Amino acid sequence: MIRSMLYVPASxxxxxxxxxxxxxxxVVLDLEDSVAPNEKEKARAGLGEAVPxxxxxxxxxxxxxxxxxx
Length: 70
Fold this sequence. Notes:
Number of strands: 3
Radius of gyration: 11 Å
Oligomer: single chain
Structural class: alpha/beta
Helix content: 25-40%
Mean pLDDT: 82
Distance between the termini: 35 Å
Low-confidence stretches: none
Largest sheet: 3 strands, parallel
Strand order of the largest sheet: 1-2-3
């Protein structure tokens, strides 16, 4: 059961690195709403490192939030 979800801007290495310490049942790596337009490409490029670091330690569920490029 997922009781809490933590939305983390995927462009913030500091937030991503500490997301697993916050006690949430799920972590959402946000690539859209919480990421500045000029940081979106950097956030997408960093998923290769962010997903394993967040998903391997604490949360039971990991989601990546994005919209298709237009």
